[in-house]
Amino acid sequence: MSRVVKKRKLDEIRQDRLYFDSYSDVTIHEEMIADHVRTNTYRMAILRNSESIRGQVVLDVGAGTGVLSIFCAQAGAKKVYAVEACSIAEQAMKIVKHNNMEDRIEVIRGTVETVDLPETVDVIVSEWMGYALLHESMLNSVLYARDKWLKPGGVILPSKAELYITPMIDPVVEDRLHFWYTVKDQYGVDMSCMCDFARKCVMNSDITVNSVTCEDVLSHPARFAELDLYSVTPEELRSVKGQFRCESFGSSAVNAFCVYFTVTFPCPDNTPPSLVLSTSPCKPETHWKQAVLYLDAPVEVVQDTLITGEVRMYPSEENARHICIHVDYSIGEQKQQSKTFSIPDWSSEAQS
Fold first, then answer.
1. Residue from 106, 136, 226, 310 carrying the catalytic annotation
2. Euclidean distance between CA atoms 23 and 88, whole angstroms
3. Is the pTM higher than 0.85?
4. What is the pLDDT of residues 152-169, one digit of tens each?
5. Cα within 13 Å of Cα(338), Cβ side
6. Any catalytic annotation for residue 90?
7. How are beta strands 150-157 and 160-168 bridged, if at all?
8. Active site (annotated) includes residue 333
9. DSSP 130
């Protein structure tokens, strides 16, 4: 094995360790379970699919505290394999026992890529989504489990994911930049020349995870990608892309794009329409919030100004679990602009 390949493998092992270690603390699990939209939508989807789950074998990929596994047992599953790689698996075992379900739920410590199940499964359930859908997500693990353990015709919950983009105005950023023009009135020192520097610092290339209000969205959303979990391949996840076209609602200044996702749970024909878990800024807030991509400078728009472009999402070269988002866009008569965004890898800086 070459030194370069060996270093890459070691880096991947370290990145995985950091990722799984981040789920060993109670805080992140508290945040996820307290997210009523997330947890209750999963619960309702599992109960609505009880006909597909009752008497069947279920695999919970990345089970965490085991709450989804318990929902599946409550829906009548004969056996649930709750696979969890980090030490929270020990707490999941306690929770399963505390709920008198150890006869039906088996918590297995390890990654789904390394564990050996005694049988194939009828259903896969997983809450795999990360920020902007794909950041630090476990989707590759779900696809691995699908290809290795799911019976033909089996059920995947959720079964579809969609990505959306919309132009937006972040008034907080504009207020922060305007602040430098107010310093002279307050203290007698003109600091307006700081505005350009502040803009470069604030409107940088980071993917900012933040809550966007519906009032700050400047057009109807445009869907730019759809992932069918029954057919999507790991290779396709290396470049998730699509075009978008929006028309602005009115006169404003576009200073960012908002990216969000939905996931859809299949439901039997005799139940209401499929359940959708949405992270839209116009829906109740979730712990995923939205991904905000700041432009280098705001662009003025009026009613029906055309905003078009292409979005491409792909894994970072430094850390395959981290997502990069590249946007090519044109606003009105402006020539096409391009910008690439990523979430800072604070963990690697802390370890360096």
1. 136
2. 7
3. yes
4. 999 999 999 999 999 999
5. 2
6. no
7. unpaired
8. no
9. B
